[in-house]
Amino acid sequence: MQKEKQDRLLYIDNIRLFLIILVILIHISIIYGGEGIYPAKEGATDEISPIILTLFNTICQSFFMGLFFLLSGYFTPWSFDRKGAKKFLRDRLIRLGIPLLVYTTVFKVVIEYLILNFFRNTEITFTEVIAYNLKNPGWFIGPLWFVEALLIFCLVYVLYRISVNKSFNPFNKKFPSNKAIFISILLLAILTFFVRIFFAVGEEIHIFQLAHFVNYIFCFWLGVLAYRRNWLDNLRAKQARTWKIIAVLILIALPFIFVFGNAAESTEKFTGGFTWQSLVYSLWETIACYSIIISLISVFKKRFNSQGNLVAWMAPNFYVVYIIHQLVILPLAIIFQSIFIPSYVKFIFVSILGVALCFAIGGLIRKIKFTRKVLG
Fold first, then answer.
1. What is the pLDDT of residues 273-288, one digit of tens each?
2. How confident is the model at residue 7 (pLDDT cuts 50, 70, 90)?
3. pTM (whole model) above 0.85
4. How far, in Å, CA of 262 to CA of 21, rounded?
5. How far is CA 268 from CA 41, 122, 271, 272, 354, in A?
6. Closest CA to 70 of 12, 21, 14, 17
7. Angle between helix 145-163 and 48-92 (nearest 10)
């Protein structure tokens, strides 16, 4: 039993490593012309880069943060059971709260200085940026919105565990049937479409894009259920093959949906409002989310359930890399600004260097005394 648990954790660790690399690549792709919200944008120097990078971002956006929330939910009941409510809350506040405070104070100033001077053509000294932030403090946490959302989800989970009998669970230990998954996808897609009538993709309330939160919330809860009912270990190969086929078909359909919906002229009808494009895109995104998640779990469990020396070293650094990656990729992008090559080539070079440096620096940070308590 112990060996089974260890093996299971290895493929989940590898999935998390894969996801954090995607986070870095997505933010770099936005710099060089891909669609998305990011404070630093250089813009594409050619016509093909925005198309390729936008398709890449769209596919990744459909599933990668949902899978992050699912895996976070998966480990939440195990941690709560082991520590109890009080210690669980204290540890969540340390592990999630301290990075939030560091980012919105120290990291924020450095990032604003780099963006203003090198991406928005504003000449301002580092001292002036510090002075401005002291006079006008704000809650800017960039990609750490996920950390804040996860902290909120954990607080809600604690309230749930305190108020509800933990033995209550209407689900059996079999992996959900395809029928149940299809019905869930349909309901989630309709709810996502409804939310996007009022909150389009890209529109933030506080720091959250509510257009994506239907699936984020559901994925976190799925992770909790998956742990309780051992669903990840009970996913059958035949059922996984069905969802792999669906995932491939839904990805092939994406360019045709964009062409048929005149996305080249405007993407606004896809991102929200009471339009057929928004309805179709909400359905596409929801199908893509769960078909890709199921497929990745199956593939990693079967093909990537071990770690060599390099991956074993990289895997524990995924959280610190998530926290610091902007401080690494922004200087790299600045260095490459004066190099006149196609944007997709810059994307490749900055991505390779960015991933390598993020993990190298992250590994050094985790060697500093007391950081392990926060960074794992």
1. 999 999 999 999 999 9
2. very low
3. yes
4. 31
5. 20, 30, 5, 7, 31
6. 12
7. 40
